[in-house]
Amino acid sequence: MRPSVRVATAFSATWVMVASFGTRSAFVKPPGPRIRFCSMPHTCLLATGLPSEEPPVTSATNDEVALQLRDYRFNNRRPLLDVQQIKDEHLRALLGNPKLASHFDLPANLNDAVSRFFAEATPRFIAAMFLLLFGLRVFLAQGASPIGWADVAVTGLVAAFWMVQEWVLHDKALHSDRDWFGKDIHAFHHDLPYYHISVDGLGLAVPWFGVAAAAAFLLFPTLALAVTATLAYTTCGLVYEFSHFISHTRVALPGALNGLRQHHMNHHLVSTESWLAFTFPKIDRLFGTLPEDPRGVPDSQRNHHFRDRQRLPEL
To answer: Interhelix angle for 223-247 vs 149-168, to 10°?
Structure first.
């Protein structure tokens, strides 16, 4: 067996073992009567400040929680940034379910945030794949495939693809005009108070990585470039996950990251029809979804997830 085939076989076997460990389905809307917050991307309810003495509420569906949160926003005519704003005892009890108590712990600083982020399964999986791919590319570079300008070009191409992909999937799938379970689950992410921890589940991350790796091996002419492409895509995924994670916390951030948080906050609090890009916010300008001033967004475009209301709340 040729060395390249042995390497590809070893990589595939490693991925299958990782994929089969701890993976849970992420493509079926949570059916049970209990609240499930982490079975799909952006559905982890990890807020802070909920009193532990509140009576537990254990039999509410995501839809029921979402409806009550929408009612709260509508009745108070203000954005819901933090659970501390909620005065309604029943809703606080609903969100303060003791079964979710371990999730209600937002990081206080950047060090805490990094630790909290890598306590989640998906970041650990992505980091493991990054290290595996990096080691594999270094190994291949020792032979007939040294790292060169072709690798640089492939990395740039993949990064550009990722930025456009983010916008397209966010707008055309997660905020689609058609109702489907992915849109419903993403809407639940929007229904939650802005400050909550959101990390994609392994059930999404593992098969997504598998598809990306398979596509790279099919599209690029050499094993080395396929590994480089998969490594670049994995890096983009890790950057996205952490950036999104940190943007939904109160951790103080430096200029660029703070600007990214404000960009994403506008998407949540002002209009879900704009500010759809994430890792590289300027992509919104390319697609015409970057308003010059959040205050100039027409009322008809504000808070589209209140679409079941006759009139929209004022921000």
So the answer is: 40
How distant is the alpha carbon of residue 6 from its chain centre? 34
DSSP 313: P
Q: Are 82 and 194 in contact (CB under 8 A)?
A: yes
**Where do we find the tokens 């005519």?**
77
> pLDDT at position 188, please?
81
Distance (Å, rounded) from C-alpha 258 to C-alpha 279?
12
Name the pTM for this structure.
Answer: 0.78
Residue 81: how many other CB atoms lie within 10 Å: 14
Q: If you ran DSSP here, which 8-state letter would residue 173 be given? A: I
pLDDT at residue 88, rounded to an integer: 82
pLDDT band of residue 80 (cuts 50, 70, 90) is confident
pLDDT at 3: 44
Taking residue 4's Cβ as centre, other Cβ atoms within 10 Å add up to 15
Which three-class secondary structure string do you get for 228-296? HHHHHHHHHHHHHHHHHHHHCCCCCCCHHHHHHHHHHHHHHHCCCCCCCCCCCCCHHHHHCCCCCCHHH
Backbone angles phi, psi at 172, to 5 degrees: -85, -25
Reduced to 3 states (helix: H, G, I; strand: E, B; else coil), residue 273 is: coil
The C-alpha atoms of residue 313 and residue 260 are separated, in whole angstroms, by 25
CA–CA distance, 290 with 283 (Å, rounded to integer): 9
